[in-house]
Amino acid sequence: MSYHYSYAMSNREIAIDLIQKLPENASLYEVAREIEFIAGVREGFEQLERGEGVPAETVRDMVHSWIAKRLPGHPLPIGNLVNPQDQ
Known about the structure:
mainly alpha; 2 domains; flat
């Protein structure tokens, strides 16, 4: 499913549009999950606009640290979490 929502759209408009794009047999759980996902993405963009974002390199370091703690001796994931744009 593809989402293309502008900041000009109200939360209500986004929810209505999202629900209309879901299959007729979508459960209430699926509807809630999709709305929660969109709300999280929107909140993330708002945080970035306020300068509250975390640099990608910091996030990569955090993920590497989490993997090392949970899976000692395990190689890093495919691509070592490197952004292709950084290469």
